[in-house]
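The methods section describes the discrete structure representation at length, but only in general terms. Each protein is reduced to its one-letter sequence and a matching series of backbone shape codes. I believe one specimen quoted in the main text would settle the matter. An entry of this sort, consisting of the sequence and the corresponding backbone structure tokens, reads as follows.
***
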Amino acid sequence: MPRIINIPTFEFENGEVLNEVPVGYERWGELNETGDNVIVVGHSLTSTPNAQSWWHGCIGPGKALDTDKYYVVCANVIGSPYGTVSPISINPETGVAYRDNLPQASVRDTVRLHKKLLDTLGVRKIAFVIGGSMGGMQALEWAYYGSDYVQGIVPIAVGGRHSSWCIAWSEAQRQAIYSDPNWKDGSYELGSPPQNGLAVARMMAMISYRSLGSFESRFGRGRNRAGSFRAETWLHHHGDQIINRFDPACYVYLTHLMDTHDIARGRDEYGVTLGAITQPTLAIGIRSDVLYLLEELEELCRYIPHSELAVMEGLHGHDTFLIDQDELNEMVLTWRQRHIDPLVDSVVGYQVG
């Protein structure tokens, strides 16, 4: 179970206010006396805040997210069932689950809530924010707190706004859940959730997270002993897994949250808004990604002035940033040592304690 801190009150972008808002998080390393040796990790759609469980190759002593030097924090997003307020959380004012009465959060809302968490933890400055996919959306939003607070960002496998292509994938997955008779317009009994719909949604997502090359190299036209294609078996395996660890209403909620992603919304023209990010930025794209195309990362680098592009060459598609962790670790470590460590080390009185 994650650590939990309750935020006394939180106002969403749409003006709605919640009281006693739980935020789930995990942390590694020690916060220094000046509260500025902090790395924030943003997680992806169905991941937990236990980032070390899914990014073990990048978090730890001597790694890109060096827990001997830095205080690494990963907080659960609004709407996820892993500690932060979600549709299945109990509303303290009514004693029943929020369900569809939970205000729809944006990526920006989640970052604002996480800022309140960091304030509570004593964080005064962030060395850099890193995340892939939905976590990359958060990294980009964090940049608008300014370079005095956030010193660098590493958005991975993400663009500056959710494309119509990604929105279509989200809607198709939502429709899979809606089509399950147990959905009941979201009023399903918690003991009888629309598991079949959620499983199909996850199977669809898993296809978008990989690539033709990945499927061909791993499965080809091979069959298992029961006669099913190995690709079919793999999809069903992931469908079976998700129903044991995630909630359908949370899945729907989070796909809507991701669809809100547009860093220019309410700010300025898209290119101008990206150009306002002044921090050192490492944008990491994946050549085989068919969900968030490499050209979206190239676009970020065209507009963000102090940015550089690194390209992962793995054939596993979008999930390459979770699979080829040695390559990712080396990219981030090299960038961190060049751009971030000098900023942190230059602080007078730097001391981990």
The CA atoms of residues 95 and 334 lie 50 Å apart. The first strand starts at residue 3 and ends at 11.
